[in-house]
Structure of DNA polymerase IV:
Amino acid sequence: MGAARIIFHVDMNSFYASVEQAYNPDLKGKAVAIAGNPKERRGIIVTSSYEARAKGIYTTMNVGEALRKCPDLIVLSPDFVKYRTASKAMFSILREYTDMVEPVSIDEGYIDITEVSKKRHPLEIAKEIQLRILHELDLPCSIGIGPNKFLAKTASDMKKPMGITVLRKRDVKEKLWPLAVIEMHGVGESTSKKLASLKIYTIGELANSNEGLLKQELGKNGVRLRERANGNDTRKVDPDSIYDTKSVGNSTTLPYDETDIEKLEETFERLAEKVAERLSVKKLCGTTISIQIRDADWHNHSRSKTLQNPISLKVDIYDEAINLFHKAWDGSPIRLLGITISNVQDIKNVAVQLSFDNFEQYAKDEPIYELIDEIEKKYGKGSIQKGIAIDKKSTYASKTSFSKDFLEDLKDN
């Protein structure tokens, strides 16, 4: 057993809406929601202020329904420059206390204050951090305190907004075990249904369940969840975790439930370009491509393919993605599309096994793409385009991977 740790989970409250209220004090105390396409009544609510939530507004509600429920709701477009700036400022405050800070997303992160707490009480530090973020950034946050990540994360969810909650291992039986298993961090609807089929309905029942049966039915994740239900979590706060890339992807929610094949193909082209850009920045390529399709009824479908040679270029990503899409799509309206490249590796370390079929095309195209990259670096994005890309107007914005973009920025700081 290692030495006991003291870990905070800092969770910004209703982050996007709170940032908007901080920038515009006239919005304080009012029902505010952020939507990807606020002018489209079928746009989706991304987040909302606590005032809006009190009136029944929730994430994923469409704008039209939200306005019917709350006619005075103020619906804003997301301003990612503001959110990025506020998030960086928040993490800068955390790093004034210790370097042991692990960003999880744009609005939450872990901080290991074990060493710092030898000189100051953890509650004193938590209160100071919370008040500094409030006074310096005008943003509310909740802080969970625990001996590990799971308990700290669970604690931060217990009191919002502006809560500070301590959750010790000895509290687990009393505070967590009576709760429904769906309330547990890391358990979604699918896992909850699988556990219900095993007659496991509460966190306590999960904690005391048969480990072998869980492993058989849920694999390693079942064993992991059982450990968490008992208050155990061996994960360390890792400031370098944002450098560990297992996959690179991008997804976008469409403004309408779309069936127009040309618009869907255009969307895939933009997604392929974004994924290729991210791979280029990371100097990565990958051998597995996956697509995500979410239909109008919120059913998710995915298809994947493992390739002989790794890919990283837009044209290759697009070709593979669109082929998967045409095989998978049944013509029903689509709400969201996504592309992910996984099994990634450093492009410098890849010895491509060129086949007779792809050698000629690879040799012909590769210098062209290098030249395009150089021209765009000098004259700007889009200064040169392949014929297929010209005159395609974009009405969609890819917003759903903004947190991933933010984590990319952190690496450069």
